[in-house]
Amino acid sequence: MTKLICFDALCDAIREAERAQTKYRQASCALARVRAKLDRAVEQAYEQQSFAPLGNLFDEEEAALAVCERAKAQLTSAQKRWRNMGAALAYEKELMLAGRWSRKRLN
After folding, report:
1. Which domain covers residue 48, as residue numbers?
2. pLDDT at res. 93
3. Predicted confidence (pLDDT) at residue 96 exceeds the cutoff of 50
4. How far apart are CA 45 and CA 27, in angstroms?
5. Separation in Å, CA 65 to CA 11, 85, 92, 98
6. Is residue 23 domain-resident?
7. Is 105 a residue whose pLDDT tops 60?
8. pTM of the model
């Protein structure tokens, strides 16, 4: 028997994609804040000719960038799952309308 897509699974995929999008936006904003802070610190360090305090900020930026990249990868994966499930559901609907499967076997 062919497995069919259920609407609950599709809704779960949509919610997962929305959560991943929210996490990515938050990570992106956090990275932007760190980079703005780093830019200000670089300007100040250049004026004072003292670059020692910048090391921690570069580490902070690197960590924020890693979080942002992971969030982006999760978003891409969630969106791909959502698209694939939507395509499968559309294909099932097309087959149903063509009369291949009975309406009782579909969602």
Report:
1. 18-96
2. 81
3. yes
4. 26
5. 30, 30, 40, 49
6. yes
7. no
8. 0.76
